[in-house]
Amino acid sequence: MTTANPAHEPAVLAAGCVLWRRTSAVGLQICLVHRPKYDDWSHPKGKLKRDEDALRGALREVLEETGHAATPGPRLPTTHYLANGRPKRVDYWAAEATAGTFVPNNEVDRVLWLSPTAATQRLTQPRDRELLAALLESLHAT
């Protein structure tokens, strides 16, 4: 019996957004989600459904995890890493939050809207901090 080599397995495909908003009182805020299963803080993301377009999946995941609809912006870097021993590819976009209200669910129990500095400090994974930096760069370029 042979053991599967994770490098040869097809990647799990996922997509997400670095969700942001501007308020007149506070300025730029970044939305982070807390996943109790992993006890981590990250950007909203999730696995794509069969034959689902990555951007459509990213916006669906944002809505499911944060309760907010979003207007997509520039594409951000794609991340690659091992999750549960399998390769995972996550495509990301910048997305501005529009209407919505968060309701805790099985996957996400808390959402925080933080300043970019506070969000950088709160994010669990370095790759998520890199995505936030890419978002800030894209917003300053516009």
Description of the structure:
There is one protein chain. By secondary structure, this protein is α+β, with helices and mostly antiparallel strands. The chain has one domain: Nucleoside Triphosphate Pyrophosphohydrolase (Alpha-Beta Complex). Helices cover 25% and strands 44% of the residues. Helix 2 packs antiparallel against helix 3. It is globular and about 50 Å long.
- The CATH superfamily is Nucleoside Triphosphate Pyrophosphohydrolase
Cα end-to-end separation: 55 Å
Oligomeric form? single chain
Count of runs of 4 or more consecutive helical residues: 3
C-alpha Rg, in Å? 15 Å
Task: Give the low-confidence spans.
Answer: 1-5
Strand content: 35-45%
CATH-derived architecture: Alpha-Beta Complex
| Average of per-residue pLDDT values | 93
What is the string of SSEs from the N terminus onward? Answer: EEEEHEEEHH
Helix content range of the residues, please? 25-40%
Described by the principal axes of the CA atoms, the overall outline is: globular
Count of the separate structural domains: 1
Report on the biggest sheet: 7 strands, mixed
Classified by CATH, the class is Alpha Beta
Class from secondary-structure proportions: alpha+beta
Q: Tally of extended strands?
A: 7
CATH level-3 fold name: Nucleoside Triphosphate Pyrophosphohydrolase
Features:
25% helix; seven-stranded mixed beta sheet; globular; Nucleoside Triphosphate Pyrophosphohydrolase; alpha+beta; disordered N terminus; 142 residues
